[in-house]
Amino acid sequence: MAKKAHQAKSISNRRARFDYELGDSLIVGIELTGAEAKSLRMGHGHLRGAYVTINKDSELVLINATIAGSAGIKIDESNQTRPRKLLAKRKEIEALSEAKKQGRTIVPLEILTSSRYIKLKIATAKGRKRYDKRQTLKARDESRQIDIALKNR
Fold first, then answer.
1. In-domain check, residue 147
2. How many helices, marked H, and strands, marked E, lie in the chain?
């Protein structure tokens, strides 16, 4: 029997790139149940409002990420946003802990489902101020206007 090809679906946190100035990124594993893994492979989840923290036992924990069930996949509402343990090496966790002590935040960027294992891409980030966001929007609009003007020539 031939293997079924995995569809390369990744669930990304587009808002993180706008709200934060991203630093070093890291790919870590995520501890899931079977129903959650199946649901993520089908694309039923989002990282809106999610963040990563380090608990007392020096473990990474993903908080507030929603994995919703669908027809045939039952996930209780209380379990859709449960805290999920992240799997990383001790040195990586220590480096993230140091970044957290320096005032940086650990932000989930993307859930990668293309390989055999489901992984989470996280990054250390520094929050942007409102005026930084406005400057980003202004620069984006200016570049868009320039591109349109060059095409119309």
1. no
2. 5, 9
71/38 Cα distance (integer angstroms): 12
What is the domain-level CATH number for residue 120? Answer: 2.40.280.10
pLDDT in tens, the chain (153 residues): 555 555 556 787 877 777 787 888 899 999 888 888 888 888 888 888 888 898 888 889 999 888 887 777 777 777 777 888 999 899 998 999 888 888 888 899 888 888 888 899 999 988 877 767 788 888 888 899 998 888 887
Please state the pTM of the whole predicted model: 0.74
φ, ψ at 124 (rounded to 5°): -80, 145
Is the Cβ–Cβ distance between 113 and 41 less than 8 Å?
Answer: yes
Does some domain include residue 145?
no
Q: Write out the residue range of the structural domain in which residue 90 sits.
A: 10-128
29 within some domain? yes
